[in-house]
Design brief:
CATH architecture of the largest domain: Orthogonal Bundle
Organism: Rubinisphaera italica
Helix content: 40-55%
Number of strands: 8
Keywords: DNA recombination, DNA-binding
GO molecular function: DNA binding
Number of helices: 20
InterPro entries: DNA_brk_join_enz, Integrase-like_cat_sf, Integrase_catalytic, Integrase_recombinase_N
Strand order of the largest sheet: 1-2-3
Protein name: Tyrosine recombinase XerC
Amino acid sequence: MDYYDSLKRIAEETGEKPTLRWWKAGKKKGGWRKLNFAGTGKAKVFFHPNTKSGYEEALHEYQLALAEASRTAEERFEDEIISLFKDTFREKQNVEIPGYAVELKKNTSKNNRVVSQTIGYWLQQYLADVGDWVGSRLKENSFHDRRYKVQSFRNWANLEDHITVIDNEYIKQFHKYLDSLNLTPDSKSDYFSVFRMFTTWAASREKCKLNLPSDFMAKKKFPFRVPEGKGNVRLQRASMLWTCEEFSNLLSLIPSNMRCFLLLFLNCGFRHVDVSELHHSNLRLEQGRIVYQRNKLNQLLSAPVVSYPLWKDTQIAIEENISDHPKYVFLNQRGNQVENAIKSWWKRWREKNKPLSHKRLDYLRKTGSTIVQRHNRDMDTFYLGETLKETSKLKYSFNDGSPCQELDNSIANLGFEFGFVESPPSSRISLPSDLLTALESKAKEKGIPLQEYLGQL
């Protein structure tokens, strides 16, 4: 099997396409090809064998070629002028002309270098800058997401336009374009947010001449509304919640590891990334619990550390699928984290199972939150692991990681509705002392225990 087949298999699992593809035309020597190289609209082929080492060499050559192609026109022109003078006068540094001294030394100072002011140039610089944040300020998946979403602007804009064409009218036209697309309001808002990120980044660069309108960051200025006739959005979303029958049917059809992940989605309000980032240190299986702080918010003081009680089915599923990795609880077959594997598996599985193809995994968490809130209006925030907002909880109460009886009861009620708990938690009612005394007297008169008397009422 050639190496490109292996790359395609990995792409199916992770959802990330390889940078280069294997290409061979007729009897010609094959090579690794990049379509639309450096935005030129043309393909470029790097001739290396169809092996792992060949792919790595092709990638290295591609990165060098991309770096050369990304140099500005001013930099290339400067090099050409220096080369011309050197060839003409055959001098390495200075040329003596009567009355003049011409210095041929290239000006390498970044502060004095004139940079391009095209939209395309600054977009390229922005993506390079964001790529450097991976690992420190940004997760790799977040970088890929931002790079994907900025394409909507890249495809719409004229990349040769001067960056200063981005003014109020320009922004309105791009907003109008996004609003015309057949996308949900949330998707349109995400694309516009990434456009905002790019333009505010560019405007903050010392060498960039972009000046944004003062009210550009006002959230309410560029809304995306549901087109007329789409109906009540919240009611539509409520119809997408999972029923007990649907979830039970799903669990009976899927592999053991996926069954485990989806139980965590419902039991603990987890997302894909929470399952993927779960550490052995988060498990308290002897107590039947997981103690976890949401991955997306774990650098914030306002994010609570929640102690989740596990249903018996969830605990058994974890024990059956736990990995021996020193850090992560779950790994895929290739020994990698499972976030992308869950997403790509669900996409493939839905295509083959039409009765449930309209369902979404993120609505398991929303289903759980809805039922938890129904039993206790204050507990959905803790179930979701969302940020604390009350000053008393933020500044004075530090019960993080400790069991919370109200949350335990709410999750038990959720489990009861989905068939994972045999009976709902008992409800306790506090009675005034005078009423309790009167009831005890009545029970004595009848010669029966108080509990039996209360059952007759």
